[in-house]
Design a protein that fits this description.
Length: about 375
């Protein structure tokens, strides 16, 4: 249960953040995001009841790893689930803005759950249907920006993306059939001319690319350059933080950390991205490191317009070679790198020989707790 002191937030003029977090949690329905079971107010506290995650967070989990860093395969697992969580949030018009290992919790089954949405931004999102004929597996952002279908072809947004593609494909097929004139197919086959291959896998892009905010929020080491400059930022900040998150998972530190917060911010703006020297036990492991570094380099592009995911969102991120072999539809069925051990069973209390009973007089007396004049400020 998350307990928020409303008086403390009101004093800091941040009460609206708690309200936004509650509004966002009420709309979420995803395996890698929290489910809000109940929310209520008690005195000057606001309480949010969610699932308990016995595995702690990924920051603590990283400290337990050899060299305090995750292997490439483990990092790929956690990053892939984080990508799906961000994809869903963006589809719902939510820019997370606070991705870091401390906010990625581990459920009892070993899968992740993002937490803390008090810094998130709610915005409008417009669905787009992208057609990309003959796109390579690791297409660039420029190649991925194909023409879009008519807005009428995009069905209403639903929580599960996989449910959309069947309807989208039918709508797209009807549009192509209407556009094609009778007899065109026979003429093409007779002449032997090569026609443009049909797009059999159109992609639905639901990314709040038009969202803009000038709020200076987040953790210093994870702030995107556009947040620091104050020129306004949108959903591309989540893909920047994904790059920093991935870097810390693999190398045990963030890429631009300085001696002070001011130095860190200056490094984010001016310092080029560099990777520490690593030793690979095999050629395959070295190739995996190269693919990971290429993904991080594209995610950590300082220009949000050139950043991977900045224009078409998760679609181009999921196409990267680092995720080769990942079955995105079955990520939830993959065995996690670590599964938290169940807590030890609590032994039953010894049976009392004599049951203590309160007298009728004691039961009628008002309850006076000890130190009732004191008030807890924090839990």
């Amino acid at each position: 249960m998350k307990v928020v002191d409303k008086d403390a937030l009101a004093f800091r003029k941040k009460l609206r953040r708690a309200e936004v977090e509650r509004e966002i949690l009420r709309t979420l329905d995803h395996p890698f995001l929290p489910t809000l079971y109940a929310d209520f107010e008690a005195s000057h506290y606001a309480c949010l009841v969610m699932e308990f995650c016995p595995g702690g967070d990924l920051h603590v989990a990283r400290q337990r790893q050899p060299g305090r860093r995750f292997s490439i395969s483990s990092a790929r697992f956690y990053v892939a689930e984080t990508v799906l969580a961000l994809e869903y949030l963006h589809m719902m018009g939510v820019v997370y803005r606070d991705l870091k290992p401390e906010n990625v919790l581990v459920r009892g089954d070993g899968h992740i759950m993002l937490s803390d949405f008090d810094l998130s931004l709610k915005c409008d999102v417009v669905p787009r249907l992208l057609r990309h004929n003959s796109l390579p597996h690791n297409a660039s952002a420029a190649a991925g920006r194909a023409d879009t279908a008519k807005p009428s072809c995009v069905p209403p947004i639903q929580p599960v993306l996989s449910c959309l593609f069947k309807g989208v494909h039918k709508c797209h097929a009807k549009e192509e059939a209407a556009r094609k004139k009778p007899g065109d197919g026979e003429a093409d086959s007779a002449d032997g001319a090569s026609s443009e291959p049909a797009d059999t896998n159109p992609e639905l892009v639901v990314e709040p690319v038009s969202a803009r905010s000038k709020s200076f929020v987040g953790t210093h080491e994870y702030l995107a350059p556009e947040v620091i400059s104050g020129q306004g930022h949108g959903s591309a900040v989540d893909w920047w933080t994904l790059g920093v998150f991935m870097y810390e998972m693999i190398y045990g530190r963030t890429p631009f950390k300085g001696e002070s917060n001011e130095k860190t911010l200056a490094n984010i703006i001016k310092q080029p991205l560099a990777f520490p020297r690593v030793e690979a036990a095999s050629g395959r492991e070295w190739d995996e490191h190269l693919r990971a570094q290429d993904l991080m380099s594209q995610l950590l592009a300082k220009n949000p317009k050139k950043r991977l995911g900045g224009s078409t969102g998760s679609a181009e991120v999921k196409r990267h070679d680092f995720f080769r072999g990942v079955n995105w539809a079955l990520v939830r069925s993959v065995r996690p790198p670590e599964v938290p051990k169940p807590p030890p069973a609590v032994p039953p209390l010894p049976a009392q020989k004599k049951v203590l009973m309160m007298s009728r007089k004691e039961r009628r007396e008002p309850y006076n707790p000890v130190r009732s004049d004191e008030r807890f400020e924090y839990f």
